[in-house]
Amino acid sequence: MKQDFLVEIGTEELPPKSLKTLMSAFTLGIEAGLNKAKLQHAAIRGYATPRRLAVLVSALDPQQADIETERLGPAVAAAFDSDGAPTPPALGFAKSCGLSVEELEQTETDKGTRLVFRRVEEGLATEALLPDIVSKALKDLPIARRMRWGASRIEFVRPVHWIVMLFGKNVVPGSIMGLESGRTTLGHRFHSNTEVNISAPADYASTLRQASVIADFVERRSLIEDGINELARGAGGHAVIDTDLLDEVTALNEWPVPLMGRFDEHFLEVPAEALISSMKEHQKYFHVVDGSDQLMPLFITVANIDSRDPAKVVAGNEKVIRPRLSDAAFFFKTDKNSSLEQRCEMLKNVVFQAKLGTVHDKSQRVAALAEYLAPSIGAEPKLAHRAAILSKADLVTEMVQEFADLQGTMGRYYAQHDGEDEAVAAALYEQYLPRFAGDKVASSSVGATLAIADRLDTLTGIFGIKQPPTGSKDPFALRRASLAVLRTLVEQGIDIDLKLALDKALSLHDKLSLSAEETSEQVLTYMLERFRSWYEEDKIRPEVFFAVMAKSPTRPLDIHRRVQAVNGFSQLPEARNLASANKRVSNILSKQDSEMSTTVDASLLLEPAEKALAEQLAQLSETLKPLIVDKDYSQILQQLAQLQQPVDDFFDQVMVMADDLALRQNRLAILSQLRELFLEVADVSLLANTK
Questions:
Q1: pLDDT in tens, 274-330
Q2: How far apart are CA 642 and CA 620, in angstroms?
Q3: CB of 217 within 8 A of CB of 23?
Q4: 279 and 243 within one domain
Q5: Which of 210, 226, 258 is the last residue of a domain?
Q6: Domain boundary among 284, 300, 335
Q7: 454 CB contacts (<8 Å, ≥6 apart)?
Q8: What is the mean pLDDT of the chain?
Q9: Closest listed residue to residue 504, CA positions, set 678, 370, 688
Q10: Alpha helices of 571-681 — where are they, by DSSP H?
């Protein structure tokens, strides 16, 4: 009879930022093990708290199904001689099966009657398989650094103290992590720190709830979120809930109780981002804003106990946060005593990369590059240069050294305090955009210029000293930098030649290991390859990207527009035939000894199909001229789609490789015209033979 299965690994407090991942991986690992063992089951559910990982499997098979194997031997006609005695093939087959010939069976096949060996392999009991399945799932968990404890050689993310394994109401005997399995777990560390027996897997969550533990991660998360929102609404505000922080706080609590505290209003004179960073990073607090999204002097913490006197818990948290915010206020006041320009000199003592110089050196290179790029981006060159010079000055402020995530943010505030142009101040913040996947890109012209210039300097420098990303190692985040540049160019409609920008960036470096030409080519290829993952996420086929890149374009915005146009074209009913025709044309032209002319002699047009195609190509050539100037690639391909029938008729009715040289050359000229028109956008022949 099918029964539920429960496994719980009891540990010391697990890493909160990894708990959700560990729960998912453990659940998937158990599921994979059961599937590999061919054990059928119903729902499977993971649980996780700071002190436990657990998986509950419903309606699990009691044992593996029996496996019937059949092995065919020689034909009966060849298995016995005229006297009925077994032949060597029959004897050899029987021996390999561990039987005598007489014990073999016979079966009818489409090739006649043959000897057959049949065996039924009895399935193993589920209970006997579960310990190994659990052990493998634990071994495969994504744990960056495992630890040992005591005198044991066993390794895990944290010391393991108990194991629960139940199949139905029975304990599954076995040793996991050096501990014998049982049915005993522990309740809440403070409210119910006693042994608790689990009678049956289905009772797991309810039994732990009675011991002040909410085992379900999702339920706990929802309770915390609802509690935080309710407290914020009660105070006339709105809680800002960061999903990563919410997951982390959920992983820190087994019996969560949200509580609201206050801090002195005079701290609001400090930039809100600094206060929020202090509350979030150090104390795991959630902040509250008013209807105008202005920070309120409130915070929400989540306690792991249901205190008889919550006011004391709140008072304790208010006492802890006060010196934190005082530090932020002190840093802000102190930092304003020196301007960003004065701090630039300090960057000469901060190494960017040993072979690429200091951060001051980098700022100087970026300033020159930004000034060069500015006109193409629509920015004022002097402002772009100024922003680049000041761009890293906030790295040596007290505030950023304490709260690294505020780089750029504090630069903007200090630039405003120093009286810098507002465009410069905004650029100091925008240079780091996008900060993460899905984040917005720099929106101002000066900000976009600085964001692009800074990343191009890093890319060319790191490639130039022969330290490009390898496999999963990307210490300078060059993949992210490349995608950030592409996104900024595309989303802001900035049409610059990336090759020229890279060449300029490389001219500002010295002492590189690679030549400027080789480095430029490597970086350009690397960056444009990032488009592939972008388009894969947008469900655009690789062939579309390859068709555009066949023209070796170097302007990202232009590449993006071509890809969108070709993707739209590829979905037209005419696309398949025209792609195949272009492939055929490409093959024909590639076999010619010399470059083909595109000039067609009307007097040599004999067949109706070639006359029709030549006439339509001539008309389209004129129609497409303004579209080509405007780079309206979608409309160009829409117009070219009209050629499907004339092209099909041409290949059906016209002998291209005619014996007459003049006819042949004229017909090849027609095909050259056809090919050149499509190549104004992309090599659509690469779309042929794809689904």
A1: 999 999 988 999 999 999 999 999 999 999 999 999 999 999 999 999 999 999 999
A2: 9
A3: yes
A4: yes
A5: 210
A6: 335
A7: 366, 388, 391, 431
A8: 94
A9: 370
A10: 575-590, 608-629, 633-640, 644-653, 661-679
Q: Are 508 and 369 in contact (CB under 8 A)?
A: yes
395 and 506 in a common domain: yes
642 secondary structure, DSSP code = G
Instruction: Give the model's pLDDT for residue 544.
Output: 95
Kindly provide the b/e burial profile for residues 204-228, where b requires at least 16 CB atoms within 10 angstroms of the residue's own CB: bbebbeebbbbbbbeebbebbbebb
Contact partners, residue 416, CB within 8 Å, separation at least 6: 422, 425
Nearest-angstrom CA–CA distance, 559 and 572:
20
User: Model pTM?
Assistant: 0.82
SS3 at position 197: strand
> How many domains in the chain?
5
Do 42 and 77 fall into the same domain? no
Q: What is the pLDDT of residues 655-685, one digit of tens each?
A: 988 888 888 888 888 899 899 999 999 999 9
**Closest-CA residue to 37 (of 2, 57, 63, 69):** 63
- Residues 618 and 652 placed together within one structural domain of the fold: yes
Distance set, CA 195 to CA 381, 654, 683 (Å): 71, 89, 71
**Do 331 and 420 sit in the same domain of this protein?**
no
